[in-house]
């Protein structure tokens, strides 16, 4: 690959003598872009726009001195690291110390010698280029480290999901048999209680208070059994999704319809929903699996519904990307504490009270969305609720195997 040419170095020269300014320009030669100014005030005004690679300034200037100019340059954003050379006829140690204390990088004495001036400028420019290259390399390394950390977190989570998938297959199978007995028993118990109440009620009369109380308790027990069996059924469903080995064929899916379907399912589980604000950027459908996408969005939607509450607001924005779509779900809840945020997609991790969830919901969402070739991320600035960003490819070419593969 052909290396790009180095940009022409820019030198700002500040001196109140027109002769000295012209001399420094001629000494530097044609290989530099030179800006000549007369005072420190003018140098401060024009330096940010010129963005010099090096500044050469006389020590004695009208207005404030070259040392003061150097001090102010060091406080100007974008110029704090610009090499600064002071030029003076004063050879005393005090003047030199004042300049260096103000932040000057080098000192030249008049009369100037062309070879020395050029050597000092070239040396400082070489040092500046080296520092810029080191800073750029450091930024690259920081970006690589951040990407590696994200990849490591994703691999650990994928490993957890893979292990959970094996466990989930067995659990789902073991739960299904007793679950069917519990559901059937709860319904039979409800019918039996009503039959007992009918038989125990004399014609034209009422059952005794003791029997009425016992029947009410039996109805409560039957209702709780039925609600518990429905909760178990949902858990078994999540486990089956995690363990599912099939990869259904892609179809045309409207992301907005998938979001609305997820909210429709959430409505059946919550008595009252927050206000939904849906913002859709028009675009073509994506190739995905509609029922899996809905199932992947549902835990995110349910989480948003629960933390926002009936009086809250959930803002959903669907944005078209170059290679897909982004579904952004923002709730109006209290947000996610920073110490919890990295674990939010971990299997069996939950902040809810014991008995109100197994912590599978968001890990199921993570597995499904990644299985569909997409990605899901969460951010939660303090006091601003949580925002889940689901990104899906327009055409799924990455999905292989189980949707829960993480």
In short:
By secondary structure, the chain is α/β, with parallel strands linked by helices. The chain has nine helices and twelve strands.
Describe this protein with a few key phrases.
406 residues, five-stranded mixed beta sheet, 12 strands
Distance between the termini: 38 Å
- Estimate percent helicity: 40-55%
Which residue ranges are poorly predicted, with pLDDT under 50 across at least 5 consecutive positions?
Answer: 354-359, 399-406
Assign an overall shape. Answer: elongated
Largest sheet: 5 strands, parallel
Tell me what you see in this structure.
The protein is of the alpha/beta class. 50% of the residues lie in helices and 16% in strands. It contains nine helices and twelve strands. The strands form three sheets. A five-stranded parallel β-sheet has the order 2-1-3-4-5, sandwiched between helices. Strands 7-9-10-12-11 form a five-stranded mixed β-sheet. The chain is elongated and about 125 Å long. The chain starts with 9 loop residues before the first strand and ends in a 13-residue tail after the last strand. The relative contact order is 0.08.
Summarize the topology.
Layout: E1 10-14, H1 18-28, E2 33-37, H2 40-50, E3 54-58, H3 66-73, E4 84-88, H4 93-102, E5 106-109, H5 114-200, H6 209-243, E6 251-253, H7 255-267, E7 275-280, E8 286-288, H8 290-308, E9 313-320, E10 324-330, H9 361-371, E11 375-379, E12 387-393
Parallel strand pairs: 1-2, 1-3, 3-4, 4-5, 7-9
Antiparallel strand pairs: 6-8, 9-10, 10-12, 11-12
Helix pairs in contact: 2-3, 3-4, 5-6, 6-9, 7-8, 8-9
């Amino acid at each position: 690959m052909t290396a790009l040419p180095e940009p022409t170095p820019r030198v700002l020269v500040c001196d109140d003598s027109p002769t000295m300014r012209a001399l420094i320009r001629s000494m530097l030669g044609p290989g530099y872009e030179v800006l000549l100014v007369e005072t420190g005030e003018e140098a401060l005004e024009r330096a940010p726009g010129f963005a010099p690679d090096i500044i050469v300034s006389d020590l004695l200037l009208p207005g404030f001195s070259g040392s003061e100019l150097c001090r102010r340059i060091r406080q100007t954003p974008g110029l704090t690291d610009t090499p600064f050379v002071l030029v003076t006829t004063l050879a005393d140690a005090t003047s030199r110390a004042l300049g260096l204390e103000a932040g000057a990088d080098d000192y030249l004495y008049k009369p100037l010698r062309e070879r020395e001036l050029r050597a000092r400028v070239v040396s400082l420019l070489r040092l500046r280029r080296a520092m810029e290259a080191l800073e750029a390399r450091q930024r690259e390394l920081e970006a690589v480290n951040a990407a590696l950390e994200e990849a490591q977190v994703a691999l650990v989570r994928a490993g957890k999901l893979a292990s959970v998938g094996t466990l989930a297959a067995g659990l789902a199978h073991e739960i299904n048999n007793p679950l069917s007995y519990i559901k059937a028993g709860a319904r039979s118990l409800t019918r039996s209680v009503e039959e007992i109440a009918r038989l125990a009620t004399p014609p034209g009369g009422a059952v005794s208070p003791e029997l009425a109380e016992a029947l009410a308790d039996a109805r409560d027990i039957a209702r709780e059994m039925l609600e518990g069996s429905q909760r178990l059924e949902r858990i078994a469903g999540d486990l089956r999704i995690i363990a599912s080995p099939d990869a259904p064929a892609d179809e045309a899916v409207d992301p907005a319809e998938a979001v609305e379907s997820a909210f429709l399912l959430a409505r059946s589980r919550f008595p009252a929903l927050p206000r939904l604000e849906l913002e859709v950027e028009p675009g073509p459908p994506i190739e995905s699996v509609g029922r899996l996408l809905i199932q992947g969005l549902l835990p995110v939607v349910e989480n948003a519904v629960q933390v926002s509450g009936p009086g809250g607001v959930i803002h959903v924005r669907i944005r078209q990307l170059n290679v897909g779509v982004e579904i952004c779900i923002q709730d109006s809840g209290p947000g996610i504490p920073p110490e919890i945020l990295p674990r939010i997609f971990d299997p069996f991790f939950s902040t809810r009270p014991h008995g109100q969830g197994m912590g599978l919901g968001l890990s199921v969402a993570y597995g499904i969305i990644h299985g569909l070739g997409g990605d899901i991320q969460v951010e939660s600035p303090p006091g601003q609720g949580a925002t889940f960003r689901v990104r899906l490819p327009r055409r799924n070419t990455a999905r292989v195997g189980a949707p829960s593969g993480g």
